[in-house]
């Protein structure tokens, strides 16, 4: 990462899209490597955009007469397709590695394995089920707002955890991206935090509490974070946001 580069560049937005999604966004890969974690301020913005697209699909489905459950499922499917199930894969790997690993090296070895075990399958089913059922509680406009807010908030939490939690290994996606600085985190999370405080401040409790057990377990078991851990954190923070919003508005 270039220490003399500015804190914010407009090119950070496509860099963030290329990292967090599977959308064919044109990006300068040399610039992406140079910016590294400094582009992290745009992660919540990307999450909000993804949530807006998926939420709009769900809202349109409801408008055509599709049931809230099916509309929420369709919106969730669009979201997963756009991200390439990147964070879901991280959650599954975390569950397998932290749940089945005997020690740090064994846990990290399991997390690098592309196969999904019993812990991972259970984690995915629970995560997708909770997100689907939470989204089904909202009407069209509520679904859109919930997906925008949860998309931004969960990636803001991921950015924050990445900044202060030590690396568990020296290679991998998280290590190659680098750790964001405090200013990057402040820029990335500031507007998101304000939006949550204005719309549903009580949901902050769930947003913070749900990822906490995974963070503690990762610190104890492998001594820090990896890309998989961050993916798991994002999923749990998203679930926490949706659950909090559903309690407030349903």
Automatic annotation (TrEMBL):
Gene Ontology MF: a single term: cobalamin 5'-phosphate synthase activity
Localization of this protein: Cell membrane
Catalyzed chemical reaction(s): alpha-ribazole 5'-phosphate + adenosylcob(III)inamide-GDP = adenosylcob(III)alamin 5'-phosphate + GMP + H(+); alpha-ribazole + adenosylcob(III)inamide-GDP = adenosylcob(III)alamin + GMP + H(+)
Main location: membrane
Topological category with respect to the lipid bilayer: Multi-pass membrane protein
Parts forming coiled coils: none
Protein's UniProt keywords contain Metal-binding: no
GO terms under biological process: cobalamin biosynthetic process
GO CC list: plasma membrane
Record bears the keyword Glycosyltransferase: no
Protein EC: 2.7.8.26
Cofactor needs: Mg(2+)
Main function: Joins adenosylcobinamide-GDP and alpha-ribazole to generate adenosylcobalamin (Ado-cobalamin). Also synthesizes adenosylcobalamin 5'-phosphate from adenosylcobinamide-GDP and alpha-ribazole 5'-phosphate.
Record-stated family: Belongs to the CobS family.
PANTHER family (UniProt xref): ADENOSYLCOBINAMIDE-GDP RIBAZOLETRANSFERASE
Name this protein carries in UniProt: Adenosylcobinamide-GDP ribazoletransferase
Gene coding for it: cobS
């Amino acid at each position: 990462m270039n220490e003399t580069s500015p804190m914010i560049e407009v090119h950070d937005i496509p860099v963030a899209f290329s990292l967090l999604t599977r959308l064919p966004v044109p990006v300068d890969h040399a610039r992406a490597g140079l910016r590294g974690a400094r582009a992290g301020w745009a992660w919540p913005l990307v999450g909000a955009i993804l949530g807006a697209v998926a939420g709009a699909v769900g809202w349109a489905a409801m408008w055509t007469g599709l049931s809230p459950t099916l509309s929420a499922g369709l919106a969730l499917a669009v979201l997963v397709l756009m991200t390439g199930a990147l964070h879901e894969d991280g959650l599954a790997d975390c569950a397998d590695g932290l749940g089945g690993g005997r020690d740090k090296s064994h846990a990290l070895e399991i997390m690098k394995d592309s196969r999904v075990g019993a812990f991972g399958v259970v984690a995915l089913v629970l995560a997708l089920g909770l997100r689907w059922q939470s989204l089904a509680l909202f009407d069209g406009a509520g679904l859109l707002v919930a997906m925008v807010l949860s998309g931004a908030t969960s990636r803001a939490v991921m950015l924050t955890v990445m900044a202060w939690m030590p690396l568990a290994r020296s290679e991998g996606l998280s290590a190659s991206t680098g750790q964001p600085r405090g200013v990057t985190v402040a820029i990335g999370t500031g507007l998101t935090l304000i939006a949550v405080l204005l719309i549903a401040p009580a949901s902050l409790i769930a947003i913070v509490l749900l990822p906490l057990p995974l963070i503690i377990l990762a610190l104890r078991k492998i001594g820090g974070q990896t890309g998989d851990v961050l993916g798991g954190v994002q999923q749990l923070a998203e679930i926490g946001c949706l659950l909090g919003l559903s309690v407030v508005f349903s």
